[in-house]
Amino acid sequence: MSMEKILDKARLNDWIAALAKGGDWEVHAPALEDGVWTYKPVGDAVRMDHPNTKQPPKGFSFPQREVFFSFEQIKGEAPRLTQVMPDPKRRAVFGVRPCDGRGAVRMDRVFADNVNDPYYQARRKNVAYVGLACNTPPAATCFCKSVGGSPVSTDGLDILLTDLGDRYHVAAVTETGKAMMAVAGSPLADAAAADRKQVKQVHGEAVAQPQRAVNNPEAAPAKLKASFNSPLWEELARACIGCGICTFLCPTCHCFDLNDEMTGTVPIKGNRVRTWDNCQFPDFTMHSSGHNPRENTAARLRQRVCHKFQYFHENFGMLQCTGCGRCVSECPVGIDIVAVVNKVAEHVA
Amino acid sequence: MINIQDIRDTARDLLAKGEVRAVIGWRAGSRGMPAEPVVITAPEQADELVWDPTCYHNLALHLVEDRKFLAHARKTAGAPIGIIAKGCDARAIVVLMQENYFKREDVYIIGVSCEGSGMIAEWKVARQLDGAVPTAAAFAGDEFAFATAAGEKRLPAREVMADRCLECRNPFPKEHNVALGEDKTGRALEAPFAALARFETRSEGERWEFWQRQFDRCIRCFACRSVCPMCYCEECVVDSINIAVAPETTAEEKANRIRWIERSAVKSENITYHMTRAIHLAGRCVDCGECERVCPVNIPLRLLNNKMEREARERFGYEPGASIGGPSLVASFRDDDPGAFIR
Q1: Measured distance CA(B108)–CA(B113) in Å, rounded
Q2: Which of A166, A346, B46, B153 could anchor a disulfide with B11, C-beta 3.0 to 4.6 Å?
Q3: Helices B302-316 and B267-280 sit at what angle, rounded to 10 degrees?
Q4: Interface test with B, best of A333, A336, A346 (most B CBs within 10 A)
């Protein structure tokens, strides 16, 4: 039995306060900072009128930089390693859009289902996503529906909120979500039949909103596979400047680099650090010989697009792209993954 | 006002006659707006070209890409490459030529004047259109006309122009083979360095605090570097591979390479990156403002480069992008250069 509640908007902050106090949650929500919607620890007032955040919430489980362990070696002695595990603080992230919830599902496949990444998992198990359904017209760059998502999808979320004007409909998706709704001092009230009816209608209207689409996404993996040697990639990547915006802002890009950062020399001291890496950077695949198998922007664009629409599908049986549109809206030269996939599909027999 | 047909005819003609091997310009983006850079190689593609207030990309970058492509493919250029260039694009081309990155005869410049106008800042448009999504933008005298689902919306150009365009003194591409549009050099809708001057009313402490916060926000996507036509180095100080690797380079040498800037996007490393870039752009930055436009987290990077530009102007009377044959700022010396700082 699912749990559905109603929250008076004016009491959203009371619920957040209850979560912080009764549930020991550190609550984060989107805030407009320097013209950029960013997840921030909640202050006095939460507003959830954001279109979507500039960066997805993936940093909560996979931060751009994290220390794995520190090391120290005094001359003549054995090196000493000290593992650094993430802060076990529980974090509740409010206002996550359904495309980003689906992004979390894909990140979990990589770091939690397939391999055991203790750092990712330590963070992930302490993060709860309180989603917010998209019931305003989609942005010009949204395309969640054509990649298997929906503006009201609950995938990857613990709770889904739906804006009903002066109140939120609050639906639990996971046991964690239920516990958060039942937290001591919660101002959530039972949902009435009329509320349930209204939510249904709002969701129906949201899903009916037209979006741009990847045509025939089921065929995309095979089409892309067949396109590997196509000269089309050079044309598609002609304007690419090789920056890292598309992947750093992607809710599902997860490539990383490991480096030792020295903090002292006598004795030798430092940290083993994981940072995001980026397949669009020329040095991403650079061999130490100097040879680079992905030597140009065409090969690198192909890698990004094929990873989202072919390789991930081959590995996990689902498209990696969730249609959030960040790589489209933020690309400095207008490279559009929807147009790229459609064009490639058109050109492959 | 420039008629788009004149741009298309010029490009078509040059390609048909074989005077250029390609033309770098803009075409409509996949969502209509904004425009996107394109390289056309056949006369019939000329009809794709567009000219509107979203042609903000500095196309000189794509000249650099072309040269790098040719160098890697070990190809010779043959005919020159054509490029449609705004005032700022043309100034960038001049700097690149001044640095012998390519020769004047390698490039055919189709200059386009922004005249009394300039390019939009999308965030300003979004603020004014109040949720309406524009699918096309056009110059319309002192206004810009936007096509939206709710019909045409007009906004005063001044209200939605990028800061860099408001402060632009040279909207006309002085260096050109052919130029379209009126020469309105010298017009600036805002005083030059206005944004910088506004910023400098803050105290030193406030400015330091401001920059620390900004650099803390940087995600090191390197879009500012990637979009800059002046950042053409094959090896960059921030990249993880910045040693020349030869067969005899040992594993130890590779492992112990000097890492000037760590991979971590943390404040100290980010500051080093941005300071290095600002210094390397001194006397070279033409204030096309692309770094600031592309920054996904809105760091006002023009302030850094403008500061260097103003220093060069005030102390040395130097203006980047003014002359191909003239001495460059950091490679020249005059007896009357101010030297009080040299002890």
Answers
A1: 16
A2: B46
A3: 40
A4: A333
Task: To the nearest 10°, report the CA torsion of A102, A104, A105, A109.
Answer: 140
Q: Apex CA B166: angle with CA B162 and CA B172, to 5°?
A: 105
Kindly list the distances between the CA atom of residue A243 and the CA atoms of A102, A340, B219, B294, in Å, as whole numbers in the listed order.
Answer: 25, 18, 12, 10
The predicted model gives B18-47 an average pLDDT of 95
- Bridge partners (DSSP) listed for residue A67: A273
Instruction: Answer whether residue A1 shows pLDDT above 70.
Output: no
Check: pTM over 0.90? Answer yes or no: yes
Q: Are A212 and B32 in contact (CB under 8 A)?
A: no
Rounded CA separation A7/A91 (Å)? 21
- Which one-letter DSSP state was computed for residue B332? -
Residue B18: exposure state from Cβ atoms within 10 A (0-12, 13-18, ≥19): exposed
- Where are chain B's structural domains? 1-190, 193-322
On chain A, the residues whose CB falls within 8 A of the CB of B241 are 283, 286
The C-alpha torsion from B66 through A246 and B56 to B65, rounded to 10°, is -10
* Closest residue on chain A to B124 (Cα): A35
Q: Which tokens sit at B41?
A: 């190689």
Nearest CA in chain A to B231: A241
CB contact under 8 A, B133 and A295: no
Predicted complex ipTM: 0.94
The answer to whether residues A149 and A323 touch, using CB atoms and an 8 Å cutoff, is yes
Asked if B83 contacts B108 with a C-beta cutoff of 8 angstroms, the reply is yes
Tokens 């979006």 locate to A211
Say if residues B238 and B274 touch (Cβ distance below 8 Å): no
Confidence (pLDDT) at B342 = 67
- With residue A100 as reference, give the H or E element that holds it: helix A98-108
Q: Which residues contact B256 (CB under 8 A, 6 or more apart)?
A: none
Q: Is the peptide bond before A267 cis (omega within 30 degrees of 0)?
A: yes
Q: A interface mutation test: which of B24, B26, B30 has the most A CBs within 10 A?
A: B30
Closest CA to A280 of B226, B67, B87: B226
State the helix-helix crossing angle for B87-98 and B60-72, rounded to 10 degrees. Answer: 40
Q: Which long-range contacts (CB under 8 A, 24 or more apart) does A310-314 make?
A: A310/A220, A310/A221, A310/A224, A310/A225, A312/A106, A312/A252, A313/A220, A313/A221, A314/A221
Query: Could you report the per-residue pLDDT of B113-161, keeping only the tens digit for each?
Result: 999 899 999 889 988 887 778 899 999 989 999 998 889 999 999 999 9
Return the DSSP state at B59. Answer: T
